[in-house]
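step 4 of 6: structure.
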Amino acid sequence: MAAVGLYNYWIVVFLMMAGFYIVIAHDNLVKKIVGLNIFQASVFVMYITFGKVQGGTAPIIADGVTTYSNPLPHVLILTAIVVGVATTALGLALVVRINEAYGTIEEDEIHDQDDDT
Amino acid sequence: MIEHLAALQVVIPLLCAPICMLVRYRDWAWIVALFGSWACLVISWLLLQQVIVGDPISYHMGNWAPPLGIEYRVDTVNAFVLLIVSAIGAVVTPYARESVRAEFGVNRVYLFYTSYMLCLCGLLGVTITGDAFNLFVFLEISSLSSYVLIAMGKDRRALTASYQYLVLGTIGATFIVIGIGLLYAETGTLNMEDLAKRLADQPLSRTVGAAFGFLVVGISLKLALFPLHLWLPNAYTYAPSVVSAFLAATATKVAVYVLLRFLFSIFNVKLSFGVMPLDTILLVLSVIAMFAASAVAIFQPDIKRMLAYSSVAQIGYMVLGISFANVNGIAAGIIHLFNHALMKGGMFLALGCVFYQIASVRLDDMAGLGKRMPWTMAAFVVGGLSLIGVPLTVGFVSKWYLVVGALDRGWWFAALLILLSSLLAVVYIWRVVEVAYLKPAPENAGDIEDAPPSMLIPTWILIGASVFFGINTDLTVGVAKQAAMQLLGAGG
């Protein structure tokens, strides 16, 4: 049952596509940011999944344990999460400013206003 | 001190950023930024001198030995790119003082310098690092700060442009992380040199193939290769003048460097251009970029937007050089990277001078400007000639080596297309010349002086350099050829 064993990767692919779809398909600027978040979260899950070693435990030295999971991808993802939070914060800040300037956060309405001027 | 230069290159602007934030007063923040950018220029010059004659410098961050520790690795390729980025930074900062004061609210000036220093730090970091994940982190530092810089534009469309760039840029960066993650899963290392060794030893697996695809698409988004360039025109048009000049001259160039690094140093020529048909893909896309973007540029009423589209076309030339995958082609790509930074940076700075005086960069408003602002418009015209590729300017040198590279590869039709697409540049530059010099100024236009010297001198430094390096090609061509040979040699 190889397909079931790759359970995590199916989740990754699903989240990635769902997030990507939201970014492309939605006109609402906040929803786009949420989609972007889901998209990034899928990558986090991917890194964490391949850091897992079968039968391995948390990488803390203990008696009678010889196999440890790889902690490096986890650390990398901590950094990536920080980057993701910064991106989200900046994106939402921009949305606030756009709302102040245009009075809307729907992309098509913003385009209409820009075309008029 | 001297052995820590590689670290200082990134640490100095990184420290200048919070200092700018803390001093708050606009002129002091400017002085801090001036110090930071000039220090970077000196450091990158010293680094380049070291690597031209000697071996690549390997600096171990925190004294942790690679491949586990983070390594900063300077060879001819990135030393040259470091020099380009920091030189543009050093020229733009003095210019920024007047321009930023005019275009920003007084209270926000120090925030500009803070994000500007962060952006410089990120761009230098991307270039200098020898660690794939570290590259992503620096890429995001530079991207996030450039979103902020673009959003500082006065027009409200700057906000939507910045938002659009944020969404596309994040998708690009995430693609790059996916690619790096897949490479790590396959090889168990993040150090670039180590990655290259381990990838060379094994046959192509599906994981490496997928990583390759994700990386190429992600980087192409960042460098605005033709169908992925949609964020660029708006971002450059609505950003403040200084920001357009700085980003146009550096951000996409650094992305081109990242592409070179991944295609040749980490993967190798055999994989990038043999197993994967990337040369054909890059050739087709870059040729379309050269023609489509230049054609669109012709019809732009906004000159800043015209230059932005012209940037997309010029990026096409750089990628075209890379697609030849031979020494002359890659050298041409690297030479054009340098040359385009000079001329486009100079032209955007000239437009900044125009905006400073008449508060518009639309073609209709520029009538008669050749007489009213002679120095500024002369700079613009010389930059334009260089963009076309007239002999005695840098543009000619780039195109010469591109054509030689195309002929070396046996793609004579590509050489023909390079010449043909230059004609499009003649058309869009001529439009500006015609309006600025041949049309009379509107009667109600008051007398205006030329831009202040603190803005004109930096503009002319870049434009002057673009003539100087068009005549004296020792530095650019020599270094670029050495860099191209290193890239090809490293790939075997």
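step 5 of 6: annotate
 - Chain B has two domains: 1-276, 277-492.
 - Chain B touches chain A through 25 residues (CB under 8 Å).
step 6 of 6: archive
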